[in-house]
Amino acid sequence: MKTISITSNNLSTIFEQIQVQLGGKLKIKSKEYRLEINNVIAEGFVSGISVEPAISYIEYDIVFKEDVTLTYRQDHSSYIHFGYCSKGKLVQSFGENGLKNTLAQFQTGIFSNSAKKRTFLFFRKNEEVKISMITVNVLSVSDKELKTHLQSTFVNNQENSELAHIGSFNLKISEKIDHLNCISQKGLIRNLLINSTVYLILALELEQHKDDLINAENSYNSLSQSDMEAIKDISEFIRNYPEIQYSLKYLSKKAGLSPIKLQEGFKIMHNRTVTDFIRNVRVEAAENLIRTSELNISEIVYTIGLTSRSYFSKIFKAKYNCSPKHYQNHQNRLAITA
Protein backbone atom coordinates (compact mmCIF):
# COMPACT_ATOMS: atom_id res chain seq x y z
CA MET A 1 0.00 0.00 0.00
CA LYS A 2 1.28 3.45 -0.96
CA THR A 3 1.02 6.28 1.57
CA ILE A 4 0.64 9.91 0.57
CA SER A 5 1.37 12.34 3.38
CA ILE A 6 0.02 15.90 3.49
CA THR A 7 1.53 17.99 6.25
CA SER A 8 0.31 21.48 5.31
CA ASN A 9 -3.00 23.29 5.12
CA ASN A 10 -1.73 25.68 2.45
CA LEU A 11 -3.29 24.71 -0.89
CA SER A 12 -0.16 25.46 -2.90
CA THR A 13 1.97 23.31 -0.60
CA ILE A 14 -0.64 20.52 -0.63
CA PHE A 15 -0.45 20.27 -4.43
CA GLU A 16 3.33 20.40 -4.39
CA GLN A 17 3.39 17.51 -1.90
CA ILE A 18 0.87 15.46 -3.90
CA GLN A 19 2.82 16.02 -7.12
CA VAL A 20 6.11 14.95 -5.51
CA GLN A 21 4.51 11.71 -4.31
CA LEU A 22 2.23 10.91 -7.26
CA GLY A 23 3.90 12.64 -10.19
CA GLY A 24 1.79 14.25 -12.88
CA LYS A 25 1.58 17.67 -14.48
CA LEU A 26 0.53 20.58 -12.28
CA LYS A 27 -1.31 23.57 -13.75
CA ILE A 28 -1.79 26.71 -11.67
CA LYS A 29 -3.98 29.60 -12.75
CA SER A 30 -4.92 32.36 -10.34
CA LYS A 31 -6.28 30.51 -7.28
CA GLU A 32 -7.02 27.27 -9.15
CA TYR A 33 -4.85 24.15 -9.16
CA ARG A 34 -5.13 21.05 -11.32
CA LEU A 35 -2.79 18.06 -11.15
CA GLU A 36 -3.27 15.67 -14.08
CA ILE A 37 -1.89 12.17 -13.49
CA ASN A 38 -1.44 9.30 -15.92
CA ASN A 39 1.27 6.92 -14.78
CA VAL A 40 1.81 3.57 -13.06
CA ILE A 41 0.44 4.97 -9.78
CA ALA A 42 -2.83 6.58 -10.84
CA GLU A 43 -4.93 7.97 -13.65
CA GLY A 44 -7.14 11.03 -13.31
CA PHE A 45 -6.80 14.42 -11.71
CA VAL A 46 -6.80 16.34 -8.45
CA SER A 47 -8.11 19.90 -8.58
CA GLY A 48 -8.25 22.62 -5.98
CA ILE A 49 -9.54 26.14 -5.39
CA SER A 50 -8.57 28.67 -2.75
CA VAL A 51 -11.83 30.44 -1.88
CA GLU A 52 -10.37 32.55 0.90
CA PRO A 53 -7.40 32.05 3.24
CA ALA A 54 -9.60 30.03 5.61
CA ILE A 55 -11.51 27.96 3.03
CA SER A 56 -10.25 25.65 0.29
CA TYR A 57 -11.87 23.09 -2.02
CA ILE A 58 -10.18 19.93 -3.32
CA GLU A 59 -11.62 17.33 -5.66
CA TYR A 60 -10.15 13.89 -6.37
CA ASP A 61 -11.43 12.34 -9.61
CA ILE A 62 -9.04 9.47 -9.93
CA VAL A 63 -8.34 5.73 -10.20
CA PHE A 64 -5.36 4.48 -8.19
CA LYS A 65 -3.54 1.45 -9.59
CA GLU A 66 -2.60 0.25 -6.12
CA ASP A 67 -4.11 0.62 -2.67
CA VAL A 68 -3.40 4.15 -1.41
CA THR A 69 -3.61 5.79 1.99
CA LEU A 70 -3.72 9.58 2.15
CA THR A 71 -2.98 11.19 5.51
CA TYR A 72 -3.75 14.71 6.72
CA ARG A 73 -1.98 16.11 9.72
CA GLN A 74 -3.12 19.22 11.59
CA ASP A 75 -1.70 20.68 14.76
CA HIS A 76 -5.10 21.53 16.24
CA SER A 77 -8.78 20.73 15.71
CA SER A 78 -9.93 24.04 14.24
CA TYR A 79 -9.81 22.52 10.74
CA ILE A 80 -13.06 20.92 9.60
CA HIS A 81 -13.27 18.76 6.45
CA PHE A 82 -16.66 18.69 4.72
CA GLY A 83 -16.56 15.71 2.38
CA TYR A 84 -18.84 14.47 -0.37
CA CYS A 85 -18.63 11.32 -2.48
CA SER A 86 -19.93 11.72 -6.05
CA LYS A 87 -18.65 8.35 -7.27
CA GLY A 88 -17.29 5.18 -5.67
CA LYS A 89 -16.71 5.23 -1.93
CA LEU A 90 -14.24 6.63 0.59
CA VAL A 91 -13.07 5.07 3.86
CA GLN A 92 -11.81 7.39 6.63
CA SER A 93 -10.28 6.85 10.07
CA PHE A 94 -8.41 8.71 12.79
CA GLY A 95 -5.08 6.95 13.08
CA GLU A 96 -4.13 4.08 10.79
CA ASN A 97 -5.87 1.47 12.92
CA GLY A 98 -8.78 3.60 14.12
CA LEU A 99 -12.48 2.98 13.56
CA LYS A 100 -13.19 3.16 9.83
CA ASN A 101 -16.04 5.32 8.55
CA THR A 102 -17.34 4.69 5.03
CA LEU A 103 -18.65 7.45 2.79
CA ALA A 104 -20.80 5.91 0.04
CA GLN A 105 -21.80 7.49 -3.26
CA PHE A 106 -23.95 10.64 -2.82
CA GLN A 107 -23.18 10.71 0.90
CA THR A 108 -21.85 13.58 3.02
CA GLY A 109 -19.22 13.37 5.74
CA ILE A 110 -17.77 15.85 8.22
CA PHE A 111 -14.39 15.15 9.84
CA SER A 112 -12.10 16.90 12.28
CA ASN A 113 -9.09 15.25 13.91
CA SER A 114 -7.60 16.06 17.29
CA ALA A 115 -4.05 17.32 17.60
CA LYS A 116 -2.97 13.82 18.61
CA LYS A 117 -4.16 11.83 15.59
CA ARG A 118 -3.99 12.20 11.83
CA THR A 119 -6.91 11.79 9.43
CA PHE A 120 -6.50 8.77 7.14
CA LEU A 121 -8.31 8.38 3.82
CA PHE A 122 -8.17 4.97 2.13
CA PHE A 123 -8.50 4.45 -1.63
CA ARG A 124 -8.89 0.95 -3.07
CA LYS A 125 -6.96 -0.26 -6.10
CA ASN A 126 -8.69 0.07 -9.50
CA GLU A 127 -11.81 1.72 -8.05
CA GLU A 128 -12.83 5.01 -9.65
CA VAL A 129 -13.61 7.64 -7.04
CA LYS A 130 -14.77 11.22 -7.15
CA ILE A 131 -14.39 12.88 -3.78
CA SER A 132 -14.84 16.56 -2.94
CA MET A 133 -13.51 18.11 0.26
CA ILE A 134 -14.08 21.62 1.59
CA THR A 135 -11.58 22.37 4.34
CA VAL A 136 -12.32 25.25 6.71
CA ASN A 137 -10.00 26.79 9.27
CA VAL A 138 -12.74 27.86 11.64
CA LEU A 139 -10.58 30.27 13.65
CA SER A 140 -9.72 32.27 10.52
CA VAL A 141 -13.15 32.44 8.84
CA SER A 142 -13.95 36.05 7.94
CA ASP A 143 -17.74 35.82 8.18
CA LYS A 144 -18.61 36.21 11.87
CA GLU A 145 -21.95 34.38 11.67
CA LEU A 146 -20.41 31.39 9.86
CA LYS A 147 -17.48 31.34 12.27
CA THR A 148 -19.76 31.33 15.30
CA HIS A 149 -21.89 28.53 13.87
CA LEU A 150 -18.91 26.34 13.03
CA GLN A 151 -17.29 26.90 16.42
CA SER A 152 -20.43 26.12 18.41
CA THR A 153 -21.38 23.12 16.27
CA PHE A 154 -18.06 21.44 15.49
CA VAL A 155 -15.06 22.91 17.33
CA ASN A 156 -16.06 23.43 20.95
CA ASN A 157 -14.90 20.56 23.19
CA GLN A 158 -13.07 18.88 20.31
CA GLU A 159 -9.50 19.52 21.49
CA ASN A 160 -8.95 16.00 22.75
CA SER A 161 -11.40 14.07 20.60
CA GLU A 162 -12.31 13.57 16.97
CA LEU A 163 -15.40 14.45 15.02
CA ALA A 164 -16.74 12.07 12.38
CA HIS A 165 -20.25 12.52 11.06
CA ILE A 166 -21.50 10.38 8.17
CA GLY A 167 -24.54 12.12 6.75
CA SER A 168 -27.50 11.05 4.67
CA PHE A 169 -27.61 10.78 0.90
CA ASN A 170 -27.84 14.14 -0.83
CA LEU A 171 -28.12 14.65 -4.59
CA LYS A 172 -28.36 18.44 -4.47
CA ILE A 173 -24.67 18.60 -3.58
CA SER A 174 -23.77 16.40 -6.54
CA GLU A 175 -25.68 18.78 -8.79
CA LYS A 176 -23.80 21.82 -7.48
CA ILE A 177 -20.44 20.07 -7.89
CA ASP A 178 -21.36 19.42 -11.52
CA HIS A 179 -22.20 23.12 -11.88
CA LEU A 180 -18.85 24.03 -10.35
CA ASN A 181 -16.99 21.88 -12.87
CA CYS A 182 -18.95 23.37 -15.78
CA ILE A 183 -18.14 27.04 -15.07
CA SER A 184 -16.66 28.31 -18.33
CA GLN A 185 -16.40 32.03 -17.64
CA LYS A 186 -13.03 33.68 -17.11
CA GLY A 187 -11.52 36.35 -14.92
CA LEU A 188 -13.52 38.08 -12.19
CA ILE A 189 -16.84 36.50 -13.21
CA ARG A 190 -15.31 33.03 -12.98
CA ASN A 191 -13.86 33.74 -9.54
CA LEU A 192 -17.19 35.03 -8.24
CA LEU A 193 -19.11 32.06 -9.63
CA ILE A 194 -16.59 29.57 -8.22
CA ASN A 195 -16.59 31.17 -4.78
CA SER A 196 -20.37 31.41 -4.59
CA THR A 197 -20.78 27.77 -5.69
CA VAL A 198 -18.30 26.48 -3.11
CA TYR A 199 -20.11 28.47 -0.41
CA LEU A 200 -23.39 26.98 -1.62
CA ILE A 201 -21.96 23.45 -1.40
CA LEU A 202 -20.78 24.23 2.14
CA ALA A 203 -24.23 25.57 3.01
CA LEU A 204 -25.83 22.35 1.74
CA GLU A 205 -23.39 20.30 3.85
CA LEU A 206 -24.34 22.31 6.93
CA GLU A 207 -28.04 22.00 6.12
CA GLN A 208 -27.68 18.24 5.71
CA HIS A 209 -25.92 17.99 9.08
CA LYS A 210 -28.72 19.97 10.72
CA ASP A 211 -31.39 17.76 9.14
CA ASP A 212 -29.52 14.63 10.20
CA LEU A 213 -29.48 15.78 13.82
CA ILE A 214 -33.20 16.56 13.72
CA ASN A 215 -34.03 13.15 12.27
CA ALA A 216 -31.52 11.20 14.37
CA GLU A 217 -34.10 9.88 16.83
CA ASN A 218 -36.96 9.54 14.35
CA SER A 219 -37.95 6.33 12.61
CA TYR A 220 -37.61 8.06 9.25
CA ASN A 221 -36.03 5.78 6.67
CA SER A 222 -34.04 7.74 4.10
CA LEU A 223 -33.79 6.58 0.52
CA SER A 224 -31.13 4.06 -0.34
CA GLN A 225 -28.16 4.77 -2.57
CA SER A 226 -29.77 2.92 -5.48
CA ASP A 227 -32.98 4.94 -4.96
CA MET A 228 -30.99 8.18 -5.17
CA GLU A 229 -29.23 7.01 -8.31
CA ALA A 230 -32.64 6.30 -9.86
CA ILE A 231 -33.87 9.79 -8.90
CA LYS A 232 -30.79 11.38 -10.45
CA ASP A 233 -31.21 9.38 -13.66
CA ILE A 234 -34.91 10.18 -14.04
CA SER A 235 -34.22 13.87 -13.36
CA GLU A 236 -31.68 13.96 -16.18
CA PHE A 237 -34.14 12.15 -18.45
CA ILE A 238 -36.76 14.83 -17.82
CA ARG A 239 -34.22 17.58 -18.50
CA ASN A 240 -33.23 15.96 -21.78
CA TYR A 241 -36.81 15.38 -22.94
CA PRO A 242 -39.03 18.13 -21.47
CA GLU A 243 -41.56 17.74 -24.28
CA ILE A 244 -42.81 14.30 -23.18
CA GLN A 245 -46.24 14.19 -21.55
CA TYR A 246 -45.18 12.66 -18.25
CA SER A 247 -47.37 10.94 -15.71
CA LEU A 248 -46.37 9.92 -12.20
CA LYS A 249 -47.17 6.31 -13.10
CA TYR A 250 -44.87 6.40 -16.14
CA LEU A 251 -41.98 8.01 -14.22
CA SER A 252 -42.37 5.63 -11.27
CA LYS A 253 -42.24 2.63 -13.57
CA LYS A 254 -39.24 3.99 -15.49
CA ALA A 255 -37.36 4.79 -12.26
CA GLY A 256 -38.31 1.49 -10.62
CA LEU A 257 -39.65 3.31 -7.57
CA SER A 258 -43.03 3.65 -5.95
CA PRO A 259 -44.82 6.99 -6.48
CA ILE A 260 -44.25 7.81 -2.81
CA LYS A 261 -40.51 7.19 -3.02
CA LEU A 262 -40.30 9.11 -6.28
CA GLN A 263 -41.97 12.15 -4.71
CA GLU A 264 -39.79 11.83 -1.61
CA GLY A 265 -36.65 11.70 -3.74
CA PHE A 266 -37.61 14.80 -5.71
CA LYS A 267 -38.29 16.69 -2.49
CA ILE A 268 -34.88 15.70 -1.15
CA MET A 269 -32.95 16.42 -4.33
CA HIS A 270 -34.81 19.38 -5.82
CA ASN A 271 -37.04 20.62 -2.99
CA ARG A 272 -39.94 20.25 -5.46
CA THR A 273 -42.70 17.81 -6.25
CA VAL A 274 -42.33 15.85 -9.48
CA THR A 275 -44.91 18.07 -11.19
CA ASP A 276 -43.18 21.26 -10.02
CA PHE A 277 -39.85 19.92 -11.26
CA ILE A 278 -41.24 19.14 -14.72
CA ARG A 279 -42.85 22.57 -14.92
CA ASN A 280 -39.61 24.29 -13.91
CA VAL A 281 -37.55 22.27 -16.42
CA ARG A 282 -39.94 23.27 -19.21
CA VAL A 283 -39.81 26.96 -18.31
CA GLU A 284 -36.00 26.93 -18.15
CA ALA A 285 -35.85 25.09 -21.49
CA ALA A 286 -38.16 27.73 -22.99
CA GLU A 287 -36.02 30.56 -21.64
CA ASN A 288 -32.97 28.99 -23.26
CA LEU A 289 -34.80 28.65 -26.59
CA ILE A 290 -35.86 32.30 -26.46
CA ARG A 291 -32.24 33.31 -26.04
CA THR A 292 -30.64 30.91 -28.50
CA SER A 293 -33.16 30.10 -31.26
CA GLU A 294 -35.26 31.85 -33.89
CA LEU A 295 -38.47 30.12 -32.84
CA ASN A 296 -41.51 32.22 -32.05
CA ILE A 297 -43.35 31.88 -28.73
CA SER A 298 -46.00 29.50 -30.09
CA GLU A 299 -43.34 27.21 -31.53
CA ILE A 300 -41.44 27.24 -28.25
CA VAL A 301 -44.59 26.33 -26.32
CA TYR A 302 -45.05 23.28 -28.57
CA THR A 303 -41.35 22.35 -28.38
CA ILE A 304 -41.37 22.09 -24.58
CA GLY A 305 -44.48 19.92 -24.52
CA LEU A 306 -47.20 22.46 -23.64
CA THR A 307 -50.35 23.26 -25.63
CA SER A 308 -51.64 26.38 -23.93
CA ARG A 309 -49.80 29.62 -24.67
CA SER A 310 -51.69 31.44 -21.91
CA TYR A 311 -50.67 28.84 -19.34
CA PHE A 312 -47.07 29.03 -20.53
CA SER A 313 -47.12 32.83 -20.20
CA LYS A 314 -48.44 32.46 -16.65
CA ILE A 315 -45.73 30.07 -15.44
CA PHE A 316 -42.99 31.93 -17.34
CA LYS A 317 -43.97 35.24 -15.72
CA ALA A 318 -44.07 33.58 -12.29
CA LYS A 319 -40.41 32.57 -12.71
CA TYR A 320 -38.93 35.49 -14.68
CA ASN A 321 -41.25 38.36 -13.68
CA CYS A 322 -42.13 39.26 -17.26
CA SER A 323 -44.06 37.82 -20.18
CA PRO A 324 -42.28 35.56 -22.70
CA LYS A 325 -42.88 38.13 -25.45
CA HIS A 326 -41.36 40.94 -23.40
CA TYR A 327 -38.38 38.72 -22.59
CA GLN A 328 -37.93 37.84 -26.27
CA ASN A 329 -38.15 41.48 -27.35
CA HIS A 330 -35.58 42.44 -24.75
CA GLN A 331 -33.22 39.74 -26.04
CA ASN A 332 -33.69 41.00 -29.59
CA ARG A 333 -32.81 44.56 -28.54
CA LEU A 334 -29.69 43.30 -26.82
CA ALA A 335 -28.68 41.44 -29.98
CA ILE A 336 -29.18 44.54 -32.13
CA THR A 337 -27.17 46.67 -29.67
CA ALA A 338 -24.35 44.13 -29.65
From TrEMBL:
Gene3D superfamilies xrefs: Homeodomain-like
UniProt key word Transcription regulation: yes
Domain HTH araC/xylS-type span(s) in chain numbering: 232-330
GO MF annotation: an example: DNA-binding transcription factor activity
Protein name: AraC-like DNA-binding protein
Listed SUPFAM superfamilies: Homeodomain-like
Matches recorded under PANTHER family: REGULATORY PROTEIN PCHR
Pfam family, one: HTH_18
Superkingdom: Bacteria
Key words of the record: DNA-binding, Transcription, Transcription regulation
